[in-house]
Amino acid sequence: MKSVACAFSVLILAACGGGGGSEIAGGSNEIKKAAQAFSASSLDNIADSELAAFGNAVGDKKIVVLTEPTHGVAQALDLNARLIRYLHEQKGFDVLLIESGLFDVVNMNELKQSRAIPFTQSAPGRTYYGFSRDAHGQKIFAYVDQTQKTSKPLSLAGIEVMMEGVASTGLFVSRLEARLQARNASLLRDPEWQTYKVIAQRLTSNPEYTDAPVELPAFKRVQELVKAEFCTAPASQESHFESDGFWCRAVHSLSGTMGYVWSKPKQLDYNERGFVAGHNAAWLIDRPFAGKKVIVLTHALHGFAAGSELKTSTGKVLADRYPGQIHTSHITASKVFDPNEATVKGTLEFELDQLGQFAYMSYPADAATRNLLQGSSVREVNFVPQTPNRFGSAYQSLFYVRQVNFTTPDWSGYPTIY
Model pTM? Predict the structure, then answer.
């Protein structure tokens, strides 16, 4: 499966460089008072009691967005696995939505129900490889599997467009056609149905940086007929392959992929993708998981709402739909690309580094401390230093680790199960 964010080499080039900002003049003591050091020697072992401040910051919010500055960061995966466990066990969150294909994760649930295949085994090849083909990311699926044997199983779903998973590339077109046949849909007799199928199959492979086919207008015309078939008063709203409500969102995901890869010549349009992913998440929240408290796990580029570089990020769609109901977390570090990297004075990382290896800070309630933070730099999307930072607007909880490491996918150790 292709990366769902920039390649690490591009990220490193983009994020290297200065991290300076105006010094937090006289503010070190205030920042230290507002922040909390963790005594744990590893992120896996942070005690529930030490996460209580995070839990208090979440409060009674119904949606928590857990972000990664970029994909493939071991510490971000470890932290988010720990936060997922805390939110599920201590705060009553029963649903995990991840940045992976809507269709592919439904196939994972199907494999669990029909063949008892655990998520740890079905995830490789169906979810983003940074989650599924590394021991750090696998902690997330291992915990979800663990909960399936309890009285409070954690539900798992994907929110993304077609991202080259083996389920979407191998099953989408044939199962779509079978579903339409079961409905005796007249559009199957459309003279351009075969053209539609060819282009739909191509889209399931997420054809980034390619030219759009000349038959795209025919595809778009038939696509609207398919949407009308499933999205006009859908008969059912469950998240499985027999649900017309699900197929409505699956077909919209195909449109999202089309907009992502072909709305701009050989460029990627993350706004098109984020719009559909956000509405996929909203459909899951409102329909299959109505009344549940939901965790969304995604890249900060997609998860940030206010202050996002995107006009229609996933986080922006959700914030507009559920005002006042979302709490977003972020993780930063002082040593990202070199263990000898200097921690720059005037950055929030410099202040948090004084507390120890791991620290946490919720957006302060008092105006004086907020004012101290305004001029400081924080490493945000792709660890790029941001001044002014978006603490308080894009995210309300900030976790700090002194040093991060990038993971390497283990393709042979985590093979695809068919």
Answer: 0.94
